[in-house]
Design goal:
The chain is built from 16 helices and 10 strands. By secondary structure, it is α+β, with helices and mostly antiparallel strands. Helix 7 runs antiparallel to helix 11, helix 11 crosses helix 13 and helix 12 packs antiparallel against helix 13.
Length: 417
C-alpha cells in the first residue's frame, strides 16, 4: 500500500488514490493528527456519503480520544466561539442559516459583482505586469478572493489590508503547526464582533448587514451565528479560490495543447470552452481534496465497510473525481469534456454555497491572465514546486512564472482597447 500524507503524497496524491479505489475503496487510516477516520474514494460511494443524512456535520457526534481533542474541524474555531456555521451543523439549523445567507449568492447578486471581480483581477495583474515575472499565488490568486470576500461581507476598504494579513496567517502553516491558523482565526473573530456592532449603527448593502437585518426581524440569529457565518464564508471561500486559480493555471502550463485551445477561445471571446474548462479544472485537480468532516450518527455501511457510531468519515473528492468507472480517461485534462458531474463543490444539502462566486472568480482570473499575459511560462521545474500539505485543501505554496513585460495601461486604457 502507498504511504499517505507525506510531502511526496501532497505533490501528487493521485497514484495513491488510484490504489485505494482498486484495493481499499473505503479505507480506515490514522491521520497525521492522530484521529482515526474512514477515507471514501470511489465516485458512487462518495456521492452516497455526501448526501447521507446519517452522517452528521456536527463534531459533537465524535467521541474524541484524548490525544485527538480539537483536531477535527478548523483550528481555533472552537476556542474563538465560531462553531455554529454551515460546515458544523445539520438541519433544521443548517436549513435556516443557509436560507439566510444564500441570498448573497443568487445569480443576480453574483452577476452584479462581476465588474468588481474584473477590476480586482486587473489591479493585481497591473502590480506585476511590467516586471515580466511574478508569483501567481502570492501576488494574484491569494489577494483576489480575499478582497472580493471583504467586499461581499461589507468589510470597509480601509480595513481590508488587515483582513488580508489575518487570512494569510490561516494558510501559512505546515508540518502540523496550527498556532498561526488559530491566531488568524482569533484576529478575524475579534474584528467581526466589532464590525457587526458597527453595522447595527449603519446598515449597508452587504452580507453582514443582511444578516443583522434578519436577526432584527425575528430570525433569532445570534451574534455568534453571524460571526461564524461570516468566518466560514471567508475560510471556505478564499483558500478554495486560491487553489482553483493556482491549480488551474498550473494544469494549463503543463498541457500546451489544452492551454492553446483555451487561449484561442478567450481571444475569440468564445466563453463556452472557458465555462467547461473551469468545470474540468475542478474535476482534474480541484482545490478541495477532501470534503469537510462527517460523523456517523448510527451504524451504516459504505462500500461494503461497516461504519460505527461516532466514526469520522472523510469523502476524498480528488479520488472520486478521477474514478474511471465514472469518467472516461480521468487522468487526462480535457477542457471540452461534455459530461462532467464532478464533486468538486460537493453534493447534497452541503453543496458549496459560494460555487457561483468561485466560478466567476476562476473564469475572470484565468481569462484575464491568458488575454493579458499570453506567453506565460513556468519559471521553475515542476518537481521544484512545493504543495501545501494538509487534509482538506490542496494547492501550491507558490507558482513562479515569467512572461514578456507588459505596459500597464490602467483602467481607462484597458477599456479603450
Amino acid at each position: 500500500m502507498p504511504e499517505l500524507f507525506t510531502w511526496e503524497f501532497a505533490a501528487d496524491p493521485y497514484p495513491a488514490y488510484a490504489w485505494l479505489r482498486e484495493h481499499s475503496p473505503v479505507h480506515r487510516t490514522t491521520l497525521p493528527s492522530g484521529v482515526e477516520a474512514w477515507l471514501v474514494t470511489r465516485y458512487a460511494d462518495a456521492r452516497q456519503a455526501l448526501a447521507d443524512q446519517r452522517l452528521s456535520k456536527n463534531p459533537d457526534h465524535h467521541d474524541e480520544p484524548s490525544h485527538a481533542k480539537g483536531k477535527t474541524g478548523i483550528p481555533g474555531e472552537r476556542k474563538a466561539d465560531l462553531m455554529t456555521h454551515l460546515l458544523n451543523i445539520d438541519p433544521p439549523d443548517h436549513t435556516r442559516l443557509r436560507r439566510l445567507v444564500s441570498k448573497a449568492f443568487t445569480p443576480r447578486r453574483v452577476a452584479e459583482f462581476a465588474p468588481r471581480v474584473q477590476e480586482l483581477t486587473d489591479r493585481f495583474i497591473d502590480d506585476f505586469a511590467a516586471r515580466g515575472e511574478a508569483d501567481l499565488i502570492h501576488e494574484f490568486a491569494f489577494p483576489l478572493p480575499i478582497y472580493a470576500i471583504c467586499d461581499l461581507l461589507g468589510v470597509p476598504r480601509e480595513d481590508q489590508d488587515d483582513f488580508r494579513d489575518w487570512a494569510a496567517m490561516m494558510i501559512r502553516h505546515g508540518g502540523g503547526k496550527r498556532g498561526g491558523v488559530a491566531r488568524g482565526v482569533k484576529k478575524i473573530r475579534d474584528y467581526l464582533a466589532d464590525l457587526i456592532h458597527r453595522k447595527r449603527e449603519a446598515l449597508g448593502d452587504d452580507l453582514i448587514s443582511d444578516l443583522v437585518r434578519a436577526s432584527d426581524h425575528g430570525e433569532h440569529l445570534t451574534e455568534n451565528e453571524v460571526a461564524a457565518m461570516c468566518f466560514v464564508l471567508l475560510f471556505a471561500g478564499f483558500e478554495t479560490t486560491i487553489n482553483l486559480i493556482g491549480n488551474g493555471t498550473y494544469s494549463l502550463l503543463m498541457d500546451e495543447e489544452q492551454r492553446t485551445a483555451l487561449q484561442d477561445a478567450v481571444d475569440s471571446e468564445d466563453l463556452q470552452l472557458l465555462d467547461s474548462g473551469i468545470e474540468e479544472m475542478l474535476r482534474f485537480d480541484g482545490p478541495v481534496e477532501v470534503a469537510t468532516w462527517r460523523f456517523a450518527t448510527q451504524p451504516l455501511e459504505i462500500g461494503g465497510q461497516d461504519i460505527a457510531v461516532g466514526d469520522p468519515v472523510l469523502v476524498v473528492l480528488a479520488a472520486a473525481n478521477r474514478d474511471p468507472s465514472r469518467f472516461a480517461e480521468p487522468d487526462v485534462l480535457d477542457l471540452a469534456r461534455k459530461e462532467n458531474p464532478h464533486l468538486g463543490f460537493g453534493h447534497g444539502i452541503h453543496y458549496c454555497l459560494g460555487a457561483p462566486l468561485a466560478r466567476l472568480e476562476g473564469r475572470t482570473a484565468l481569462a484575464t491572465l491568458l488575454r493579458r499575459l499570453p506567453d506565460l511560462k513556468l519559471a521553475e521545474e515542476p518537481a521544484e514546486l512545493r504543495w501545501r500539505g494538509g487534509l482538506i485543501m490542496r494547492g501550491l505554496r507558490s507558482l513562479p512564472v515569467t512572461f514578456t513585460p507588459q505596459a500597464v495601461l490602467g483602467r481607462a486604457g484597458r477599456e479603450a482597447h
